[in-house]
Each structure stands twice: as structure tokens, then as C-alpha cells.
Amino acid sequence: MNTHTSSSSSMLRMALLAVLLNYTVIVTGQTVFDSGSNGSYGPMNITADTTLDLPPDGIFHCTSINIASNKTLTFKRNGRNTPVYLLATGDVEILGTISCNLGTQAGAGRRGVAGPGGWDSGLPQQAGQPTRGAALGPGVVPNFQISMFSKGQNSYGNPLLIPLVGGSGFDDYGGGGAILVSSATRVNIRGAIVSDGLWGSTGGAIRIVAPILTGTGTLSANSYGRDAFGRIRIDVLNRTNWQPQTIWGAYSTGFNMIVFPPNLPKVEIMQVAGQVIDPNASSPVNQVLPQGTNPQQTVRCRVSNFNGTAKLQVRLTPENGDFINYNLDIPNPGPEPAEGEVTVTFPVNLMTRVDAWTREP
After folding, report:
1. How far is residue 193 from each of residues 30, 235, 255, 285, 314, measured CA to CA in Å?
2. 49 and 156 housed in the same domain
């Protein structure tokens, strides 16, 4: 038996975790808001169509951000496929377009690529195999049906977009990506921020955090052809002059004025079939099981900050055929990390991806 496993612990999403946070904003004269930016990138001025390589953590620490009219900013995914974080100590002016749309359609021997922070499509049917491969992401349902929140159904994840989760793939198409835009002063959108999927894949995620939001622009986390909406979250103190032209997505607003919540619950894959996995690896880890290896193996996960029982779903997604889910419950009563493992059965002679995320109770 020659079984391949791919553990993408660095790309995990806690997509089904409802995180409820309460923050009180006390206004005493002038409110100071921390956008999360240290300013090390300097000013980001996009005056021509531009594609930027995402840094390893996905974060651009800007002083200001300006996207010129009729110009588009896109991104090349990093090895961990993190979301995009555009953070600024000063104003953010979006007159053109910021795009986290899906990348490519599936082709011979390759998946359709999602936008950054999103999930890829399935693999096309391979020679000698009876079926194509399942798409990736927590929003995918069995038997290659459309995603669970298409046709106007509720989006997965939670309205706060904490954690920030992109769209799931479907068929030949990757889902929409995920982006957070934050300014310590003001965000003005007269252009558009888009994070769309296509033809059954799901729309992505857009979150904006700033003291002031103005403009008449467009926010879109749609999936053309299926209405498989992603999520849009606006957390601002003053949106009196925010009159958007178009919003496509499951939309919510509030005053959750924090960019990176401390002590966020975390899920990591630590070991697959006896191989230790570095949770900080910059790309997915590949492992080959020797011929004759028992297909029943264990997957070990580590959780932290759940303050209760972490209810996980471990998913095996082979290159061909449907995915297989396994439930794993790990007691985690306090902030200290806790580990647990589940026995899984790997498909024989197929490259198989391993993912873990929280599941609905």
C-alpha cells in the first residue's frame, strides 16, 4: 500500500466556532483605536493594477492605504494560505478595487485555486478513477452537492467573522478569499472590496474595523450563479456617512473594536500516522506511508483557550472520491493546551488531505 497524507495544520480554520465577545468603548475626549498596524510597511499607494505577494502571516503593516480609481489590487497566496490583513495607522482610501476573488478553475491534475484564505475546488476525475475529488472547506457537503449555505441559506461561521474564514470550494471552482481592512482613523470606500466565489463555491469574508467608515462603494462576498453568500462584518463607531451602493453577502454591523482578539480558541494538528507535524510550518506537510502499512492510523490534535470541551471534526479528503469525517472531543477546561487523538482509516493508494476544525454541537 502506498498511501499519501497531507496535513495542512497551518491552514486550519475554526469555521463553525461561535465566538461571543463583549468590548466596552469608553470615549473620553478623543478615542484611540489600535488598528493592529506597526507601520513597518509604510504607505501603500496603488496607482496601477497590482498583485502583491502575501507575507507569511498575511499582514500588511501600513501607515496609509490608497487604491486609485479604476485600479485593482489583488494578492498572491502565501504558503499557509492565510487571509489578507490590510492594517493602517492612518487613513484608508479605496477608490478602485481590492479583490480577494477566486484564483483559477480546476484543470488537468490540479484544483481550482481559491482566493487567499479560501478553500480550493475538487480535483477533476483522474484516469482509472471512478469519480472526481471532493472540494475543500467546512462548507462542503457530501456527494459533491453545492455548499451548505448556497441558495440563500445561512452562512457558516459566525456574524463576527472571528475567526476570519474564507469560502469553501465546489466542483471546479475555489471559494472567495478572506480580508480584513483596519484603520486607526478612517476607512473611505468609493470603489469596491470583493471576495466572490463562482458556480457553487461560496463567497468569502470581508471585515472592516475603524473609528469612522464613509463612502458609497460596494462590498461583495457573493457566489455568482448560486447565491452562496459569504459574510461581511462592519465594526465601526461612526458610519453616519456610509451609504453603500451595493452589499452582497450575509451582512452585519457592530462595535467590536478589536482586530486580533487575545486568547482566541485555537486548533492545531500535531501528529498524523505517527509523524509529528510542526503547527507553524509555512506550507502543508506531506507524508508517505510505506507499502503494507495498516490504513487505520491516528490523528492527534491540540486545542487551547476553549474553556470547555473542544468539539472537533477531523476530515480526510482523498484526491478522488468523497471526504470522510471523524468527530473528536477534547476536554479543555482552561486556557492551557490539551491534546486528543482519533483513529481514522486512510483510503489506500490515494493522496489524502487532513484538516481539522470545530463542528457544531
Report:
1. 29, 16, 20, 32, 33
2. yes
